[in-house]
Every structure is written in structure tokens, then in C-alpha cells.
């Protein structure tokens, strides 16, 4: 496959087109705004694997009827520090916003609180889900599973999802955050390598026969590998438990069985599943007067190490640059998005 030419698009235009495309495919205004919002945030932070690249999947999920574009998420208390948000088969971003709104005051009053977000279709980058909590001074963890595309360490058959987790800790300059798949790389990254005719790094996965390969298409058809061998495999397993078993939601392999009703694994958009979101208030953990300065001195010690960069540094740098300059998108992807939004791909007018 030949590399696509790219086109620079201002973020506001990207947001309008993604929102319009979702509206035309059946999203109500709230879902369209929230779902387009996570794609724009990903593009703005230089994460193309979770940006506009996801739009065809979102649209396919609406068109097949798998996702309800007008679902109204419902909040219910489970215990003093525990809530459940039922997304009613909608895309996750709207339910995640509601979860944060309800979780933040609980975390402040209880010290720690959790939200089980169920019956949602999650397809996006996780830092977007925790960053607003971190910005208001809370720490956060977030976990979700996917579809069975990762072979557990030692096995050749996929059973785990790419199962990302994100962690955030508040502090100066937006605090600290990491957000990573438990697979050696996100599936979207692999799909982009395949589309661009590039090789995957060593250790990314195996082909259908279980042989290690650098061919992204062969890995997509075979199985991805967890990061760090058995250690990443254990993290992926933990996420199957936290985002699936614990909150009564399908594991990645159970989600796949549900998905077969909606067509191809890769083309049908995000599967139904759960998200576990935990928020905590550092003011309540016994060092209210000291933790901020303590964290700041820890981070300056860390940053002083030659060669060191913190997770999130690249993302924040990209955010400022892309807000100014616009985002580079594959021209064919942008054309398809314009068409889906009902815009003329030549004039970019409705
Ligand atoms: P990366 O491996 O690109 O990055 C993972 C984390 O490591 C980021 O916080 C990144 O910070 C940091 N990092 C990267 N390189 C360095 C370095 N040299 N030094 C220090 N820190 C570094 O991400 P993944 O490919 O694992 O995941 C990409 C995205 O895919 C995530 O946002 C994840 O949530 C999403 N995803 C979503 C799924 C879903 O089903 N919803 C499934 C799987 C993944 P920085 O951003 O600054 O580079």
C-alpha cells in the first residue's frame, strides 16, 4: 500500500466535520459533540490512532444499530463511594463525562471513589477520560478492555484486548499522566503501519501460526503481544477483571462473541464493554500540607536525569503546536469524513 498524501486541517473544522458526520449517522447532538470531542483531543495531542482514524468505526457502529446514538446514560449509587453509570449502549464519551461529574465530589468527600461505567462502546484514548479530574486536583486511574487481539504471554491465541490503563496525579503544569495499552502497541498504531506499508517493531506480535513477525498485516490477522512479556500479560489480565468481571461487563473474548452479530471484527466499531474509573483526593491521604511540594521536588529530581522525559511531555508539546498549526490528516481519510458529513469534498461546503 502506498503512503497517503496529507492535508492540514484546523481543529475547529475537524470538530465541525466529525460532529456533522456523527449527527448524519444517527447521533444526537450531545453524543456527537462528546464523541467528536475525543477524536479532536486525540488529534490535537498527536495521537492519530485515536483521532479521525476512528470515525469510520463510529459510523459503522451507528449504521449497524449496534450503538444507540441517542442513548441517555443513567447514574445510580452502589455504595457511599461507588456509582454505576449505565451508558445504555451509547458511545462512551458522554457517559464518561457524566461519570466524572458525579465522581469528583464523591472522591473529595470520601477520599477515594469509583465509577463503574457499563454498557458503553469505548474506542478512544484514555487520558481524555482522566485529564479533567487531574486538572481539578484529583488523582485518577482508568481501565477498559477491547476485543481478543492479544495473546497472553506463552500462548499463541489471542484472548486479551489491547486493554489500556491511564493514571494521573495532580500538580503543577497539569500534573502527571500516563496512558498506555497493555499490548506492546495500540492496535490503531498497527493498523496505521499496515496502511502505510511500514514494518512493526520487534516484539509487536505473531502471525496466524504463532511465529514472530514484523509484518503489521500478519500481526493483525494473528495476535499482538503484551508489552514486557508476562508482566504486561498480567496487567492485561487485571484489566479484564477490573473492567469486565468486577463490574458485570463482557471480557474481551465475550465481547467478541457478542460482536459476531455485527460483522467484521475490525470494521464494526467499538464493542460493548465496561470502563472502571477511580478518582482519589491527595488532600485526604494524610499529607495535605506537604504532598504538592513533595511531588514537585520528586519531579524535578526525575527531570534532572539526562535522557529523561516524562510521559505526557510529547503530548503537551504537540497540543500547543497542533492548536496553532492545524492537524495533518491523510487526504483520503479527510475526504471520506467530508463526504460522511455531507460536505462537498472539493469545496468543503455542505
Ligand atoms: P504509547 O506507547 O505511545 O505511549 C504510552 C505512554 O508512554 C504515554 O503516556 C506516552 O507519553 C509515554 N511515553 C512514550 N514514549 C515515552 C518515552 N520515551 N519516555 C517516557 N514516556 C513515554 O501509547 P500506546 O500505543 O500504548 O497507546 C496509545 C493510545 O491508545 C492510548 O491513549 C490508549 O488509551 C489508547 N488505547 C485505547 C484502547 C481502547 O480500547 N479504548 C485500546 C488500546 C489503546 P506521550 O503521550 O507524551 O508520548
Kindly describe this structure:
The protein is an alpha+beta fold. It has two domains: 1-64 and 312-350, Orthogonal Bundle (Hypothetical Oxidoreductase Yiak, Chain: A, domain 1), CATH 1.10.1530; 79-183 and 226-310, Ribosomal Protein S8, Chain: A, domain 1. It is 41% helix and 18% strand. The protein contains twelve helices and eleven strands. It has helices at residues 11-24, 29-44, 55-63, 92-110, 127-135, 187-195, 216-221, 230-245, 252-259, 291-303, 313-325, 331-340, and strands at 6-9, 74-79, 82-91, 112-121, 139-144, 165-169, 176-180, 205-206, 223-224, 272-280, 327-330. The strands form three sheets. It has a seven-stranded mixed beta sheet, with helices on both faces. Strands 1-11 form a two-stranded antiparallel sheet. Helix 4 links the parallel strand 3 and strand 4 (112-121). Helix 1 crosses helix 12 and helix 4 runs parallel beside helix 5 (127-135). The longest helix has 19 residues, at 92-110. It is globular. The chain binds NADPH dihydro-nicotinamide-adenine-dinucleotide phosphate. NADPH dihydro-nicotinamide-adenine-dinucleotide phosphate binds next to strand 7 and helix 11. NADPH dihydro-nicotinamide-adenine-dinucleotide phosphate is lined by residues 47, 50, 122-127, 144, 146, 162, 164, 178-181, 185-186, 189, 309, 311-315.
Amino acid at each position: 500500500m502506498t503512503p497517503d498524501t496529507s492535508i492540514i486541517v484546523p481543529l475547529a473544522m475537524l470538530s465541525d466535520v466529525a460532529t456533522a458526520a456523527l449527527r448524519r449517522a444517527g447521533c444526537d447532538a450531545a453524543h456527537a459533540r462528546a464523541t467528536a470531542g475525543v477524536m479532536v483531543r486525540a488529534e490535537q495531542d498527536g495521537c492519530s490512532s485515536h483521532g479521525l482514524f476512528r470515525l469510520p468505526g463510529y459510523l459503522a457502529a451507528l449504521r449497524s444499530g449496534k450503538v444507540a446514538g441517542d442513548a441517555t446514560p443513567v447514574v445510580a449509587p452502589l455504595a457511599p463511594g461507588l456509582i454505576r453509570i449505565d451508558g445504555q449502549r451509547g458511545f462512551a464519551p458522554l457517559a464518561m463525562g457524566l461519570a466524572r461529574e458525579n465522581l469528583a465530589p464523591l472522591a473529595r468527600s470520601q477520599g477515594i471513589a469509583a465509577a463503574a461505567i457499563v454498557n458503553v462502546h469505548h474506542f478512544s484514548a484514555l487520558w481524555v477520560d482522566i485529564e479533567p479530574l487531574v486538572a481539578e486536583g484529583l488523582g485518577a486511574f482508568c481501565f477498559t478492555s477491547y476485543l481478543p487481539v492479544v495473546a497472553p504471554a506463552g500462548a499463541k491465541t489471542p484472548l486479551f484486548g489491547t486493554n489500556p490503563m491511564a493514571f494521573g496525579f495532580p500538580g503543577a503544569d497539569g500534573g502527571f499522566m500516563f496512558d498506555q495499552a497493555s499490548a506492546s502497541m495500540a492496535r490503531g498504531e498497527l493498523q496505521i503501519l499496515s496502511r502505510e506499508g511500514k514494518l512493526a517493531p520487534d516484539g509487536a506480535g505473531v502471525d496466524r501460526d504463532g511465529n514472530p513477525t514484523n509484518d503489521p498485516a500478519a500481526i493483525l490477522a494473528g495476535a499482538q503481544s503484551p508489552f514486557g512479556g508476562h508482566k504486561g500479560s498480567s496487567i492485561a489480565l487485571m484489566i479484564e477483571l477490573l473492567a469486565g468481571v468486577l463490574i458485570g461487563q463482557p471480557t474481551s473474548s465475550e465481547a467478541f462473541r457478542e460482536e459476531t452479530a455485527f460483522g467484521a471484527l475490525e470494521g464494526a466499531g467499538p464493542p460493548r464493554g465496561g470502563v472502571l474509573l477511580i478518582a482519589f483526593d491527595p488532600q485526604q491521604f494524610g499529607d495535605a500540607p506537604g504532598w504538592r511540594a513533595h511531588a514537585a521536588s520528586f519531579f524535578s529530581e526525575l527531570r534532572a536525569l539526562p535522557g529523561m522525559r516524562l510521559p505526557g511531555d510529547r503530548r503537551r508539546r504537540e497540543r500547543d503546536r497542533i492548536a496553532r498549526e492545524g492537524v495533518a490528516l491523510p487526504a483520503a481519510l479527510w475526504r471520506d469524513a467530508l463526504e460522511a458529513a455531507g460536505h462537498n469534498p472539493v469545496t468543503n461546503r455542505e
